[in-house]
């Protein structure tokens, strides 16, 4: 992520974990067991901190909103959680959040412990407006359907692709059909503990 201060023309970064065969989940009931060894590792925690600290707006879909708000408040308050986990939880709770959904309404968001969240409906138009607003960069949090839509609209500037050494054989693919694009490699990070690789690609 960019470490720049407030500015217009913000970059959109998409962070997503995928299997070796290109799936971001096994489907609607994905329990994420296939990637939890990596997610819970200290190496992963340090890596993700370098991504989210550069963002001033988080973008996510309904599934991740419901999953995150069910789990993260407890992690944030748990004294057994690491300092980085608690910091990330506080950031998630307070950062500007746009939740793209066809079913939730604002009252659903307001019932949670998290603040500064609003409903988004028109993905392309609202993300274009966010890019032109003052602020730090925009981070899409592991929501494959949102990332697909933004990729198709040419609105993803940075792609943080974490590849877990597991094949799922089916589920939700990250890249939409017939999507062709060219990227440049910024960094490649290896995680020996989980045999995982994270690749940061960008569009100049």
| Whole-number total of structural domains | 1
- Give the spatial strand order of the biggest sheet: 5-4-3-6-1-7-10-9
- Given the helix and strand composition, which structural class is it? alpha/beta
Mean pLDDT: 90
User: Strand content of the residues, in percent?
Assistant: 25-35%
- What is the β-strand count? 10
CATH architecture: 3-Layer(aba) Sandwich
By CATH reckoning, the class would read: Alpha Beta
- N-to-C SSE series? EEHHEHHEHEHEHEEEE
Percentage of helical residues? Answer: 25-40%
Shape: globular
What do these coordinates show?
The protein is an alpha/beta fold and 204 residues long. Helix content is 33%, strand content 27%. The chain has a single domain (12-202), classed as Dihydrofolate Reductase, subunit A (3-Layer(aba) Sandwich). The chain contains seven helices and ten strands. The longest helix is centred in the middle third of the chain and has 16 residues, at 62-77. The relative contact order is 0.25.
What's the layout of helices and strands?
Layout: E1 12-19, E2 23-25, H1 36-39, H2 42-52, E3 55-61, H3 62-77, H4 83-94, E4 96-100, H5 106-110, E5 117-120, H6 123-132, E6 137-141, H7 144-152, E7 158-164, E8 172-173, E9 184-191, E10 196-202
Parallel strand pairs: 1-6, 1-7, 3-4, 3-6, 4-5
Antiparallel strand pairs: 2-8, 7-10, 9-10
Observed structural traits:
7 helices; Dihydrofolate Reductase, subunit A; 10 strands; alpha/beta; single chain; eight-stranded mixed β-sheet
């Amino acid at each position: 992520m960019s470490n720049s201060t407030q500015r217009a023309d913000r970059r959109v970064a998409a962070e997503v974990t995928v299997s070796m065969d290109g799936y971001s989940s096994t489907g609607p009931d994905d329990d994420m067991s296939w990637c939890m060894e990596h997610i819970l590792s200290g190496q992963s925690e340090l890596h993700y901190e370098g991504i989210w600290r550069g963002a001033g707006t988080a973008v996510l879909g309904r599934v991740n909103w419901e999953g995150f708000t069910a789990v993260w408040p407890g992690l944030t308050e748990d004294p057994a959680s690491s300092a980085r986990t608690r910091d990330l939880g506080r950031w998630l709770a307070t950062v500007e959040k746009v939740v793209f959904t066809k079913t939730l309404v604002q009252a659903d968001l307001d019932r949670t412990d998290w603040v500064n969240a609003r409903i988004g409906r028109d993905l392309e138009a609202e993300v274009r407006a966010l890019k032109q607003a003052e602020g730090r960069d925009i981070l899409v949090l592991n929501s494959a359907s949102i990332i697909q839509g933004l990729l198709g609209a040419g609105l993803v500037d940075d792609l943080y692709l974490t590849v877990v050494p597991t094949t799922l054989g089916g589920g939700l693919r990250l890249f939409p059909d017939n999507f062709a694009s060219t990227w440049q490699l910024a960094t490649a990070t290896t995680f020996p503990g989980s045999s995982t690789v994270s690749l940061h690609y960008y569009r100049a």
